[in-house]
Amino acid sequence: MLNYSLVKTLHIVGVFMLISSIVIICYSDSNRFVARVTGNVAMFVILITGLALTVLLHIGFPFWVQVKLAIWLLLTIAVLFVSAKKLRLPTVFYLIVLLVVSGATFLAILKPG
Asked: What whole-number distance in Å separates Cα of residue 43 and Cα of residue 29?
């Protein structure tokens, strides 16, 4: 049986890994390969632990979980595109990512609906 606290901690660590990899991809010319790999691993960890948390909470598949899955998909696509080429406006992209992650955090804390 999975421990809720452990899965939630791994989920949060995955989010930190993702944001760290996005910062490296946006602002560093070196270590981009490591950042891309870290970002991909982070997205996988976030998906698996997020789904596990949904199962552990016994809440089914409410609308806010669907929105968080859409956010996850959006961030995955964004990381793939950004890691493929150098950004012209890395700060704007980083701020947008922070806003999107903040929205996902809001949904996770309040669990509306």
From this structure: 22
Cα distance between residue 89 and residue 86, in whole Å: 9
Question: Positive or negative, the Cα torsion across 11, 85, 67, 44?
Answer: negative
Most distant CA atoms of the chain, gap in Å: 46
Exposure of 80 in the CB half-sphere (CA atoms within 13 A) = 7
Q: Which amino acid is at 68?
A: K
Tell me the average confidence (pLDDT) per consecutive run of 10 residues in the chain, 113 residues long: 90 94 86 88 95 92 93 89 79 90 92 84
Residue 95 CA, distance from chain mean position: 14
Q: CA-CA distances (angstroms) from residue 93 to 10, 26, 96?
A: 25, 8, 5
The answer to whether the beta carbons of residues 22 and 79 sit under 8 Å apart is yes
Nearest-10 crossing angle of helices 90-110, 4-27: 170
CA 68/CA 19 separation, integer angstroms: 16
